[in-house]
């Protein structure tokens, strides 16, 4: 069956069933992620940066802990956020969270800064997250 009729049929079916496709709006403020995700911001200017490899290697742990990460590596932003990121938010990252002595910042689901590190250590951040009351509630353990 040709693709166009299939897509047309799908669109008609969705319109009659009340399902609408929405374009995801750009992330303009970290408050849009509040209470749903923890955030890790990282800056690394090392040309042989291992930051992105760390995020890739720890993907299951990142997903399990509801982490959205943003990494400035060699003057280029990377993220696991599925949508667009507004330029004003990127500017806010650079001005408000990352400075010369902090390479990594952990922001909790409540929007508060939970940890800063001079060098990204995901295992240490995971250990810190895992003792937080909200995380313990998520995994169903007592303190």
Highlighted features:
alpha+beta, 19% strand, 5 strands, DUF4174 domain-containing protein, signal, Glutaredoxin, DUF4174
Descriptive notes:
The chain has 143 residues and is α+β, with helices and mostly antiparallel strands. The chain has one domain: Glutaredoxin, CATH 3.40.30.10. Helices cover 38% and strands 19% of the residues. It has helices at 3-17, 51-57, 59-64, 87-97, 122-130, 133-139; strands at 38-44, 67-73, 76-79, 104-107, 113-117. It has a 5-stranded mixed beta sheet, with helices on both faces. A hairpin with a 2-residue loop joins strand 2 and strand 3. It is globular, with a radius of gyration of 19 Å. Mean pLDDT is 80; it is low at 1-23.
Q: Beta fraction of the residues?
A: 15-25%
Into how many domains do the coordinates divide? Answer: 1
Percent helix among the residues? Answer: 25-40%
Shape: globular
CATH homologous superfamily (4th level) name: Glutaredoxin
Which topology does CATH recognise? Glutaredoxin
The number of strands is 5
- Element pattern in H and E: HEHHEEHEEHH
How many strands, which pairing sense, and closed or not: the largest β-sheet? 5 strands, mixed
The DSSP helix count reads 6
Major sheet strand order: 3-2-1-4-5
CATH class: Alpha Beta
Q: C-alpha Rg, in Å? A: 19 Å
Q: Uncertain segments of ≥5 residues (pLDDT<50)? A: 1-23
Reported CATH architecture = 3-Layer(aba) Sandwich
